[in-house]
Every structure is written in C-alpha cells, then in structure tokens.
C-alpha cells in the first residue's frame, strides 16, 4: 500500500509524506523535504511493529532541529576542511556551515531541498522516487539527481542514488537516519551491538575533521570485527572517543560489504549491505535535550547513524578514494537495509 499525505509547509511550499507498507505490516515513510526518512516501523521478536529511527511528526520540526535526522545527504557527505574543494587543479570555496568547515553539503545541501516525487511498484517492491535538479554556488555544475526508496516483501528498504552532472564535480551521498532498534525510542543505543569488517579507520582531530592516515583498528576499542556492545565504547577514556564527545564519529574503511546492528531485548537485527567503500559511525553524542521526538524526549545516544559513503574529507588527501564524478558519467550507488530478528 502506498499513501501520500500532507506533512507541513516550508517557506509556504507544501511538504508531502509518502508511506510504503508491505504485507507484513512493515512501513517506511519519507517526505519531500530532504528525502527525509520519517519512520521505519519493523516487528520485534514478538511481532510488535514499532518505529526504529528518531523521527518528528512535521516538516517544520525537522527544520527546527537541524541535525540531519533521516535526511538524504549530498552533494558531499561528511566534512570538507575549510569548506574548500579542488577539482582538476581548480579550487572552489564553498560557504561554511560548521565553523570554518562544510558539513553534509552545506546549508543548501540535499537535506534542505524540496524534492519532486513519483510512486509505483516494481519487481522489487513498492517505491517512491525523488527527483532534484540541483545547482548551488557551493559546488560546480548542474546535477540531475534521483533517490529511490523501495520497500520489499522481505522487509528490506533499498536506497538507490543516481546522479549525472554537466561538468566534473564532487558527489558523495548517504542517508542520515538515527537507528534505535529498541522500538519507539524506549532505550538508548548503549545495549546495541555492532559488527562489521574493517582493519583501517581515520582518526579525527579536535575539530571533528578526519585525518589522512589510515590507522590500524584491530585490537583497539574501535575494533568492530567481532560483535561489540556500544556501551563498551561510549564514555571510555580513549582519546579518539573523547574527541567525539564521548562516543564515535569516525570513518572506517570496509573490508566486506555487510554491517550488522542488533539489540537483544527487542530481538531486532539490522543488516546493511552496501556497495560503498566506507562507513561513518556516529553514536548521537550531540543529539542533546530540551525537545522531543514523536515517541520520546531527545537525549544523547538515542540513535546511531551508520553512514555508508565514500571516505569523507578525501578532497584534501589524494591517496584516499576520490569522490569526483566526471561530466556525463552516471553516478550510481545502492544500499540494502534488511530488518530481521535475532
């Protein structure tokens, strides 16, 4: 079933929410502001269907609390140091939106755009496809972009990114959902367990910027090659954890394309399968308080972002994989979010 309903207004322009529901009762909702995922509702081990992401109930609240909750991120995910980028030997100066730096595409990034959409059913499942002709003074070129959310009969959310530019430019997309498998934000993520294959990561400095050296992660507190509970990391005395406000906000280079997140009390498990090279883990150490999501008051560590993408800050470090796309050459990446039980 596909439903479309009003979701508020931004600058007097209507925002619409699209809800995809499969035969199992799982549903995924998203909206035309920033392609924001406004809910993912999945069954726990007892079959109780609850929301597993941090969500608000209107577009206006997403604008009021701008921490990229559920949003599509682009043209460049992560931080660009000093808001500068270089393409083909030419330097471009973007407008900083985090101190002197550019975070998640800047103030005109994908998350702040109103997207057009169409819905339908394919061989894979129900889908909503969002479209945007993107042009910004912060990035060279005109970008024709689409992002498709497909809900399958097997309780999978598939996110497909497609883009093409009229000039060489930079493009590195991800989704910024804050996952909490307890259901309806009943608990923090500290009892969640995380596992993925990675031998190398990038450390961050005191500004949160990824550094250029690939550091060995094996045997350290940030080693997730074997299942590790987030409570083992959050609040530890590690210098890197302290630099990330007591949590994790780091890029890891993926050895395999699969990431697992689970929570034993609910029995929920999320398996992420991606064609991207890196994973930025952010444990929500700056969510803060004084406001509320749909189901619970906000607090630090109430959600974890698993941002599959290319390596952030790669423009500065030439030995890291490039995020430059060539004129007229299609950009395509796809990630599967498979929701199951332990």
Automatic annotation (TrEMBL):
Its EC number is 5.1.3.3. Belongs to the aldose epimerase family. This is Aldose 1-epimerase. Pathway: Carbohydrate metabolism; hexose metabolism. Keywords: Carbohydrate metabolism, Isomerase. It comes from the Bacteria. PROSITE patterns: ALDOSE_1_EPIMERASE. SUPFAM superfamilies: Galactose mutarotase-like. InterPro entries: Ald1_epimerase_CS, Aldose_1-epimerase, Aldose_1/G6P_1-epimerase, Gal_mutarotase_sf_dom, Galactose_mutarotase-like, GH-type_carb-bd.
């Amino acid at each position: 079933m596909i439903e479309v309903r009003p979701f508020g207004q931004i600058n007097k322009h209507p925002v619409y929410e699209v809800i995809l529901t499969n035969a199992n009762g799982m549903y995924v909702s998203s909206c035309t502001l920033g392609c924001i995922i406004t809910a993912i509702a999945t069954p726990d081990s007892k079959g109780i269907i609850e929301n597993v992401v941090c969500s608000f109930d209107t577009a206006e609240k997403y604008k009021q609390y701008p921490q990229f909750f559920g949003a599509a991120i682009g043209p460049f995910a992560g931080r660009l140091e000093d808001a500068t980028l270089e393409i083909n030997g030419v330097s471009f100066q973007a407008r900083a939106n985090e101190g002197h730096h550019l975070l998640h595409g800047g103030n005109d990034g994908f998350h702040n755009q109103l997207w057009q959409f169409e819905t339908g059913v394919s061989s894979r499942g129900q889908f909503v496809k969002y479209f945007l002709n993107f042009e910004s003074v912060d990035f060279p070129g005109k970008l024709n972009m689409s992002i498709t959310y497909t809900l399958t009969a097997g309780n999978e959310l598939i996110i497909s990114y497609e883009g093409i530019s009229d000039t060489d430019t930079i493009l590195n997309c991800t989704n910024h959902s804050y996952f909490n498998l307890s259901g309806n934000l009943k608990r923090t993520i500290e009892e969640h367990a995380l596992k993925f294959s990675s031998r190398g990561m990038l450390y961050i400095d005191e500004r949160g910027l990824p550094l250029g050296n690939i550091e060995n992660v094996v045997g350290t507190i940030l080693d997730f090659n074997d299942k590790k509970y987030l409570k083992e990391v959050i609040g530890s005395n590690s210098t890197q954890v302290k630099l990330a406000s007591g949590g994790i906000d780091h890029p890891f280079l993926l050895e395999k394309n699969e990431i697992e997140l689970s929570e034993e009390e609910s029995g929920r498990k999320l398996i992420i399968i991606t064609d991207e090279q890196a994973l930025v883990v952010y444990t929500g150490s700056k969510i803060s308080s004084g406001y509320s999501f749909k189901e619970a008051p906000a607090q630090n560590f109430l959600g974890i972002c698993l941002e599959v993408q290319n390596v952030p800050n790669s423009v500065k470090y030439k030995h890291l994989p490039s995020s430059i796309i060539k004129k007229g050459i299609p950009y395509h990446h796809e990630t599967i979010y498979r929701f199951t039980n332990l």
